Amino acid sequence: MNKTPATHYRIIPKDPAAHLFSVAIHVAEPDPKGQEISFATWIPGSYLIRDFSQHVEQMKALDQNGQELAVTPLSQSRWKIAPCQGRLTIHYYVYAWDLSVRGAHLDQQHGFFNGTSVFAEVCGLSDEPCLVDILPPKGVADSWKVYTSLNEAEGFENAAPRHGFGRYFARDYDELIDHPVEMGTPKTISFEAGGTEHELVFTGITPNIDLERIAADCQRICQTEIDMFEPQSRQAPFADTASRYVFMVMVTENGYGGLEHRSSTALMTGRNALPIKGKDQRTPEYTQFLGLVSHEYFHSWNVKRIKPQRFTPYDLSQATPTKLLWVFEGFTSYYDDLFLLRSGLIEQAEYLRLLERTINNVLPAAGARKQSIAQSSYDAGNKYYRQNENSPNAIVSYYTKGALTAMCLDLYLRAETDGQRSLDDVMRLMWQEYGRDFYKGNQAGIEEEGMVQIVREACDVDISDFVQCYVDGTEPLPLEELLFKSGSRVRLKKSPNSQGDAWLGLKTRKQCCQLMISHVAEGSPAHLGGLSGLDTLAAIDGLQVRPDNFETLMKHYRPGDEVTIYVFRRDELQAYRVVLGEMPAAYQLYVED
Ligand code: ZN
């Protein structure tokens, strides 16, 4: 038997109907001055302050004789427990009704949790190993199973069997909260890539889901990414953290999202995105799902092992902004669809359409001229995660513009080295110097201004000017020029709208049976005419606007026409004269003969 760790957690889905997990923490030798415990205020990978303690209820602390100890709050997320002799036990409940990849969710069908939602940190013992008993809810012990990349507590009493309830083990608190846990009766399938078992776990009702096809497609993505980072050994990077990699997929009507972890990922997808047995055609939604798989898997290297120095270690007590999300999310967003192409899951033409869509979303928005991607990275928690009707006018996405910047950097490196070096070489160098040994004790991270030096080392190219113009600055990305200079046969052009459609320059959102303006583009006819985000469209020139007729109504008009648009601003009817514009030209990618 191994030495018993100082901290021992126990979690039980106590009342699935009320969505309550019961958690106990046993601390063998609490701080004699009074043990402090704290909850994370954010979860790595998602940079909004979420204050997970908001869902914690009925906290109490007991000494080894069962005597209750005073629990004094030091802040919203930190408490001090009165000093005691011998073992300390802390009890609380967690309300788990957040169906997202970032929180915890429990009902009669399944349980899911991130450690940040349920496990308080025992201050002073964060670097020590801990045990975790994951126990079943009453009445389902035989049917529910456990899916997680957290290691079973091998060599300890009551060690969980594979997929079983029982005892698990984490080397430290950082590891404990980086292996989310799914429990229930999901559909599963496994495949091998890079010498590691990969498990796909689908929770939710999924009639006739084609597991074999999904597994085969994911296998190709995973192995292609592994081969880029480890062209010699072709080994997956997980041996240092777990015996497996787990994709936990929550299937809902139209959910979407993902969160990366060191040996697993939590995903959400719409039911219709998943392929059905016997139906072979690929839908755009399934391609998007595979892009999500590709994205989160790429994070296994880029942000879970290669990290910004600011995240080594994570400070979960407060926001920890970094300017480098353009690397960690932007590069990852560039590579996600690129790996669908490289693994043969999509054709070049489809890849160019995906890229074209990103280009047309990013480049025309006013925000791209006001905020750099370095600023966007730094302000992620405060701006990107708190978007409103004005956001496209004010900010830029370090995901989408980061992806286009990554593409430009890739083309730039190819151009400067006559095709001898590329962004792949940068990724491999970062992997070798920062990532490969991250969980073997080499916890260096990339400095805020470190990319110039890394690229110089990887490609012998100076990107100081590139960074100044396109990362720290907001100069328009030289896509056309770089496509040409890099030797690529792909070209970018702007093609004018040939239909003669009139243009307002606003986005709408259906709200009940009305159409609300969700965004007015800066400088657009809608803006110049006086319309605002959050106005509800009522009529155009005396004709009622409904969600189902707005586009058809607009087809009656030509650029240059002056129309009267009636809106409700709150509950007040207002009329605005708007001179309609011409639909802006769209970017098009094509392959030169
Ligand atoms: Zn990401």
Residues in helices, as a percent range: 25-40%
Radius of gyration: 26 Å
What ranges have pLDDT less than 50 throughout 5 or more consecutive residues? none
The secondary-structure class comes to: alpha+beta
Query: Total number of β-strand segments?
Result: 31
Bound molecules: zinc ion
N-C termini distance: 69 Å
Strand content: 25-35%
Average pLDDT, rounded to a whole number, is 96
The gross shape turns out to be: globular
The largest sheet is: 8 strands, mixed
Strand order in the largest sheet = 5-4-8-2-1-12-15-14
Tally the helices. 16
Topology (elements, then pairings):
Elements (H helix, E strand, L loop, with lengths): L6 E9 L4 E8 L8 E3 L17 E7 L5 E2 L1 E5 L2 E4 L6 E8 L8 E3 L3 E4 L1 H4 L2 E2 L7 E5 L10 E4 L2 E2 L13 E5 L2 H4 L4 E4 L2 E7 L2 E8 L7 H19 L14 E9 L4 E4 L3 E7 L13 H15 L26 H18 L5 H15 L4 H4 L2 H6 L12 H4 L5 H17 L6 H13 L15 H9 L4 H8 L7 H7 L4 E6 L6 E2 L2 E6 L2 E7 L4 H5 L6 E5 L2 E2 L5 H5 L7 E8 L2 E8 L1 E2 L3 E6 L2
Parallel strand pairs: 1-12, 18-19, 19-21
Antiparallel strand pairs: 1-2, 2-8, 3-7, 3-11, 4-5, 4-8, 6-7, 9-10, 10-16, 12-15, 13-16, 14-15, 17-18, 20-21, 22-31, 23-30, 24-25, 25-26, 26-27, 26-28, 28-29
This protein binds zinc ion (ZN).
